[in-house]
Amino acid sequence: MLCEICGKPTQMLRVVLIEGSELNACPDCAKFGVERSPKPKKTSAPVHVSEALERREKRTQTRDVLVDGAEELVPDFHLRIRKARERLLWTPEDLGKKINEKKSVILKLEGGQMHPDDSLIRKLERMLNIKLKERPTLASAPKSAVQRGLTLGDFMRIGKK
Question: Are both 32 and 69 inside the same structural domain?
Fold first, then answer.
């Protein structure tokens, strides 16, 4: 558990009243307020500062994007968009109206002349019921890279295809 005053992890917290606010404090910080006996928790209690501190600590931890497997736009996104649109018997103009985009944007996407941003990818995936982002795999890497391991140069070449 975390102290709501200093944020230090501790095993024992004390409920103290500081300037009209009840806080869970470590023994070191408890001296700044008047100690109270803990009240029974309500079912719809507000979020305590300690919980917010724990969430913030979790949020600020660094992550390895390669381990997390960040999703990337698939190389054949333009074909998937066109095939899904044709399967639904929609014209590029129909699809554009449904996702609030111009017909020219749809034609550029289907021609591979334009790469969609994240919000457009989400709209297309939802409307056409397709996947445009996937996690990169070793199957998409050159065979020489699989034998020796991927390098940054291999990732650069994969992205250009």
Answer: no
